[in-house]
Automatic annotation (TrEMBL):
InterPro entries: Globin, Globin-like_sf, Globin/Proto, Globin_lamprey/hagfish
Taxonomic placement: Eukaryota, Metazoa, Chordata, Craniata, Vertebrata
Family: Belongs to the globin family.
Organism expressing this protein natively: Xenopus tropicalis (Western clawed frog)
Gene3D superfamilies xref list: Globins
Top-level taxonomic group: Eukaryota
Globin domain ranges (all copies): 3-152
Full protein name: superoxide dismutase
Catalytic activity annotation: Fe(III)-heme b-[protein] + nitric oxide + H2O = Fe(II)-heme b-[protein] + nitrite + 2 H(+); Fe(II)-heme b-[protein] + nitric oxide + O2 = Fe(III)-heme b-[protein] + nitrate; 2 superoxide + 2 H(+) = H2O2 + O2; H2O2 + AH2 = A + 2 H2O
Length: 156
């Protein structure tokens, strides 16, 4: 990821080692936060549309499973920060699947990235420094631009 510095990669890995210690719980928190902050995103999950209370969300196996998939995909990106080709391949596949199969608009990734940073801030408190936040924002900006380009290249 050409625009990420060595310090950025270090910041990202430091935060990720804490967050990814429990991917299922972290992922569940991200998905629930996404649904609470941006309830319109639930329309893409046909089995989750009628879940409205926080308790229902916390107890739902589908939310837990999707959160774990989100964390797994993000982990793949983090593990390959020094291998842009591997990241691009994974993101291209992710974009194609979300655009063609799930009919998810690309702007929803931006919402997800905002929620992830918010979850990091809440989970880590003062342990999530402004420098780390900037590194994650940079990563998500690069990632979002790449996803946008994938969507644009497959639009009919």
């Amino acid at each position: 990821m050409a625009d990420l510095t060595g310090a950025d990669i270090e910041n990202i890995n430091e935060v990720w080692s804490k967050i990814y210690a429990n991917p299922e719980e972290s992922g569940r928190t991200v998905v629930i936060s996404l649904f609470l902050t941006y309830p319109q995103t639930k329309i893409y999950f046909k089995n989750l549309k009628n879940i409205s209370t926080l308790q229902e969300m916390q107890d739902n196996a589908g939310i837990r499973a999707h959160g774990k998939r989100v964390m797994g995909a993000l982990n793949h990106v983090i593990e390959n920060l020094k291998d842009w080709d591997a990241v691009c391949s994974a993101l291209s596949h992710l974009a194609k699947r979300h655009q063609d199969v799930h009919k998810v608009e690309v702007n929803n990734f931006e919402l997800l990235f905002l929620v992830i940073i918010s979850v990091f801030k809440e989970a880590l408190g003062s342990g999530f420094t402004p420098e780390q936040s900037k590194s994650w924002e940079k990563l998500f900006s690069i990632t979002y631009k790449y996803l946008e380009s994938c969507y644009a290249n497959t639009d009919s």
